[in-house]
UniProtKB/TrEMBL annotation:
This is GNAT family N-acetyltransferase. InterPro entries: Acyl_CoA_acyltransferase, GNAT_dom, UCP028520. SUPFAM superfamilies: Acyl-CoA N-acyltransferases (Nat). Keywords: Transferase.
Length: 203
């Protein structure tokens, strides 16, 4: 079986909303208006498909975006340039099958050409060990904690250095090559499970 990663389509927003709000307490709920704002403003909004059905999605923003999130603001107050994973959701029946790893591999391949660091958070109130282990296996490290005042939730704030970025920046500056695989929209297909570097360590 394979996992396909592609940009979300507007008519799929109802399915995305249902998937988000069925994910449990580790993911903040959304309403349709909030999801529409994310759709209109997100730099990265992609879904994972397996067997022709939506299996997950990931939404991300560059550090200079206008984004309504106290966790995003926490990072922006401390770091000048990063790519922020706002949320990643995998359908419950697909967890443990490589969907989350496929989404993270894709968002990293997108971000490392454009940003020096990748940022995200893990809520600590709801059995976070598996999520922290998952992110640690990708090379994320905790750089602090933040309590979201609007939800009274404590989050571990995680960052990962993207090792390819300095070379890309020095070589291409602000103008990436005009190659189809660098442009959006695009679709990739990965055989599952997806293999990634266990540590993501820079040489």
């Amino acid at each position: 079986m394979s996992i396909a990663i592609r940009d979300v389509r507007e008519h799929e927003l109802d399915s995305v909303l249902a998937l988000n709000n069925a994910a449990g307490p580790a993911i903040l709920p959304l309403d349709s208006a909030r999801l529409r704002r994310l759709f209109d403003s997100a730099e990265y909004f992609r879904v994972a498909e397996r067997d022709g059905a939506m299996a997950g999605f990931l939404i991300g923003f560059g550090s200079h975006a206008r984004h309504e999130s106290s966790n995003f603001s926490w990072f922006r107050e401390r770091y000048p340039d990063f790519f922020y994973i706002d949320r990643v959701v995998v359908a419950s029946r697909r967890r443990g099958g490589g969907v989350g790893r496929a989404l993270y591999a894709d968002v990293q391949s997108y971000a490392e050409l454009r940003y020096p660091q990748l940022a995200c958070e893990v809520f600590l109130e709801h059995g976070a060990d598996h999520a922290l282990l998952f992110h640690g296996s990708f090379g994320f490290r905790e750089v602090g904690q933040n309590v979201m005042p609007e939800h009274d939730l404590r989050a571990a704030m995680l960052m990962k250095t993207l090792c390819s970025y300095p070379w890309v920046r020095d070589t291409y500056g602000d103008a990436l090559p005009d190659e189809p695989w660098l442009q959006r929209p695009r679709a990739i297909v990965a055989d599952a499970p997806v293999a990634v570097s266990s540590k993501g360590a820079c040489a």
